[in-house]
Amino acid sequence: MFNIFKKKDKVVISLTSSPKEPKESEKLEESKKYIRHKGISLLSLPDNYIVLDLETTGYNPHFDEIIEVACIRYSGSEKIDSFHSYVQPTPYGDDSIHYVDDFITKLTGITDDMLVTAPKFKDIANELYDYLGDSVIVGHNVNFDINFLYDNFLKCLGCEFKNDYLDTMRLSRIALPDLPHHRLKDLKEYFSIDGVQHRALNDCQITHTVLSKLLDYIQENNVDLERYLHPKRFDLTSLTGDVTLNDPSNPLYGKHCVFTGKLQRFVRKDAAQIVCNIGGCCDNSVTKKTNFLIIGGLDDIPLVKDGKSTKMKKAEKLILDGQDLKILSESTFYDLIEDSIK
DNA sequence: CTACCTCGAGCTCA
DNA sequence: CTCGAGGTAG
């Protein structure tokens, strides 16, 4: 099985510009050069994949550098082979050779001595690039690693790193939403996994164990990944009210309601539930059936310029056509449902 | 109905 | 970066 997460495909055609093109579009081309065209974030795996981890001198791919890289290739749950190398970053300071500061040494155990004889990234770039091939990359918050690799491959080889990837942190947040945190450390404890953290190869092993535990859990508990692969907006028409709470004397009873804008006191689904309990019915768009349009705040919402959403404009037109439709302010709406929310 | 955009909140990586 | 809650266009 091989799911694909939908993503806007911002493919940029490069270098077709002629010298006579106006400045405006040249600037656009220029800005596009800094967009990373990465692979796709997956939620399930093909048979072959590579677990990867980097140690770096910091968080920022722009200023910081890779000091260790490790990968393990798997076929299913079986380890095939691995790749490991220290990487020598550019030294800092004067005479004495310093590659990493105390904080990073303390965190990772990697010292200047270990990097003196290490290859630079450009020396391993080809071998690593070939090793990774077009395999799916697995890692914890793997975007971090992908971004470092992307920049380094681009710089050293002039090519983009476009491999698809699976992020165990994303998977964990979906599978175990009740965990307070989803750091690798937390999952290591949660699943009782042994091993010292912050060494690249160890972290690969830990990440792989986390991965298989998560996949087992997802399998056993029928976790719905489809929802994240094809996100759907909540369908208000699917709501069913509690009949015992129906209030035939309420003006909303038996009427069709639509919301626009952001409500102060509720998310829309909860407000819709209240309407349904009264005995009303909620829809997602203004139609010939609509009796009430409830207006939340439109200020923050993009594309609503003149203070009127398209729902509001449509409603005003229908009212002119004689439809039994009233536009309610948010506070009027609260007055109407007051009795039902106790 | 389906697809895609946008914003803010919350979080993890060395 | 991802998700959820809002929007629009076709």
From TrEMBL:
The keyword Nuclease is annotated on this UniProt entry: yes
Signal peptide: none
InterPro entries (UniProt xref): BRCT_dom (IPR001357), BRCT_dom_sf (IPR036420), DnaQ (IPR006054), Ribonucl_H (IPR013520), RNaseH-like_sf (IPR012337), RNaseH_sf (IPR036397)
Residues in BRCT domain copies: 249-340
Domain Exonuclease: 48-220
A biological process from GO: DNA replication
GO molecular-function terms, A-Z: 3'-5' exonuclease activity; DNA binding; DNA-directed DNA polymerase activity
SMART domains listed in its UniProt record: BRCT, EXOIII
Record key words, sorted: Exonuclease, Hydrolase, Nuclease
One protein family per Pfam: BRCT
Protein name as it appears in the record: Exonuclease
Source organism: Megasphaera hexanoica
